[in-house]
Design a protein that fits this description.
rod-shaped, alpha+beta, 19 strands
Length: about 300
Amino acid sequence: MKRIRTYGMILLLLAVLLSGCSAESIAEKGVGLLDKMFAGDSSESQTPAEQPESPEPSTDPEPAGQEPGHSPEAVEPSIPDEPPVSEEPPATETSQSAPAGDVTPSHTDATFFGPGESFRYLPKGIDGVYACTYVSEDETIAYVDPDTGKVTAVGPGTTKVTMHVEYNGQYDFECIVRCKWEADEKEPSLPSEPTLPPASTNPADTAGTAAISASHSDTTFFNPKEHFQLLPVGAGDDYACSYATADAGIASVDEKGVVTAVGPGTTTVTMTLDAGGTEYIFKCIVRCNWSSEKQ
């Protein structure tokens, strides 16, 4: 810039010398020339306004199989399919008519020989909490307590008592109950409980003893404290009885002839009958079938 001004002054002085003009006219013309010169210089020396830098074109190679100038379409990530979930039906408890596993009934067939005799109908092989309900098909023959399972003889005949058990499943059991204390309704005894003929201490009265017998001759208990009453049958109203047990640790008997289960084992209960001045002796086998752990 300074050089231009210097050159301008030199040229102006040369013009004054050559033109022979007055100093005032040369000064006016020189100032105008200098202004034009300097105006042009100043316009050329000005730096144009900074323009925003345009983005450089991308030099990345186009993906294979893609036309130039086309942007790739957005591809959504694939979501893996969830494995199928097998829907199993909810487990339902099934009722079984036969024992399953170690669950069994305490009785399957019981015989009574007098009203009021009883036993407790219970499930065996259960350790823990369980629930039982009971139903008697004919309560005029045998009644069952719905809470305790105690089965009591009511009248002669045969019926069934059902026990429904809920313990890790549901189970149904049946027990045949026979009430036999009338001669015309007697049924053959079970093989496991044979009926023994009555014994008498008076052999001469064999004909008379045919009408007199004992209500029980062979009985099996399955639980402690079960009981029955040993009575004479066919002796009428005029008689006297006394009782004795061979082993009170297995079965006890009181003065009324009530025999009660005490401990496991087999023993004999004797009934001595005095009817019409004649003495009769009857023996009843008592079997207590359970393990000693149940006591």
